[in-house]
User: Fold this.
Amino acid sequence: MAQYINNDEMMRVASFYEPLRQRNLLFEQEFGRKPRAVVETHGCQQNENDSERLRGMLAEAGYDFSDDINDADVVVFNTCAVRENAEDKIFGRIGILKHIKEHKPHMLIALCGCMVQQQHIAEKIRTVHPQVDLVFGPHALYRFPELLEKAYKSRKTLLSVDDSDGAIAEDMPVMREDAHKAWVSVMYGCNNFCTYCVVPYVRGRERSRKPECIISEIEELARDGVGEITLLGQNVNSYGKDLEEDIDFADLIRRVNDIEGIERIRFMTSHPKDFGDRLIDAMAECDKVCPQLHLPFQSGSDKVLADMNRRYTRAEYLEKLNKAKARIPNLALTTDIIVGFPTETQADFEDTVSLLEEAEFDMIFSFIYSRRVGTPAAKMESVLSDEQIHKNFERMLSVQNEISRRKNEAYVGRVCRVLVDGESKTDSKMLTSRTDTGKIVNFAGDKSLAGKYIDVKITKAQTWSLYGELV
Assistant:
């Protein structure tokens, strides 16, 4: 059963907002402005969702916000532990902050998220990077106001990274950057223990939010003008298994589909072993659910899948994928792939390429295996050389790029309904938007269209995006 943080504890934590506000009033009197905070997110959508809560708590405490760490008085790095290069990037950013803090000794530096939940990382930060004032893991997120106030008073790095399966905290302040789309977490943690993955160790066991809490949050978002919802979980297919109520993820989707004002529903991530007919039926029968499925397969080799502890076979994966394709018209498919898992041979890699060619994904998220301390795969010896692994990775991208380009070209001439995100980051004369299948569509238009659903005729296709014109 999922554990919940009770109201008394939430009220105790909320009592720390007032001393923070008083502290910030004194800062404003001294510097003539409110203190500025930067929250920098690394990693997955769940981290993005957590960062929205961090910003909400900072706003409640009286902070303004900036995008530039050079202007910041409080910097929070929300970290990722999935790959080594993500950790290396954070340590590089910490080094930059050390030099900034030498000229701004009042600056407070906080690190949170999955990376710092690892005990060896937290200890390294404490001993090697004393410029960091506060370190806390995902389980302590709701305690941020308390930890922030204590960090101001502490003369050494404050750590809160105790091992825990985690508990659910509702009703935290949230500051979302997008007025028209929102992430909504439906569950936390993971029970799968894939041999390459550190997530169960840092995020804890699976725990589902109560459906009434989820529905209430989405209804409030709809009243505020949010039209597109993405339901989040490390494995959304497992939703409800730990609840007393007889409900699964397919049931939850049907309930969200009935909420007035919501126009699009997306979700991620699904685990193939739990993906089945009930969810496929819900996707097909609920008119607001987008025809888009992210279903990671990781490897096309049964041997490697077994070594990864994925608990499905290549044939089982393809059977489920083909069922979804047959049941849901115009379904767009995306996936995750790991190249260079320690036991992967060249023949195993060829199996992955052949699955790519057979499944024809619209897009893939691909990674070279990254050894994670504490996972079973970290003790395995690699079969292939680094040089061969990188060659394989580039070849796989080449195969997929051709498939993605071909899939996108099929959109040329179609009229697609898109949700306009706003101005393109690369061309201020263009707007960027997304179809219900998740395709990026760029077109010329007025920025006042941001947040609206409009029809666009696709005129040009590229590997990663489409171009169109207003209908």
